[in-house]
Amino acid sequence: MASEKKTLYIKGDRDVEVTKPDVMLGDILSMECSDPSVLPGIKTLKIVKFGKQGQQRCVVSVLKVIECIHGKYPMIEVQNLGETDIIVTYEEQKTPPEAWHIIKTAFVAAAAFCGAAFSIMAFNNDVDVTKLFGQIYELAMGKESSGYTVLEISYSLGLSIGILIFFNHFGKKRFTVDPTPMEIQMRLYENDIQTTLVENAEREGMEFDVGGNGKTDPSGRHRT
Amino acid sequence: MWAETGKQILLAVIGLSAGAAVAGGLFSFIVELGVIADFADRTHTGDRLLLYESSVAVGGILGNLFYIYGGTALLNLPELADVLYGGAGIVLLGLFGLLAGVFVGCWAMALAEILNVFPVFMRRARIVRYISVFVVSLAAGKSLGALLFFWQRW
Question: What's the mean pLDDT when you consider all of chain A?
Answer without folding.
Answer: 81
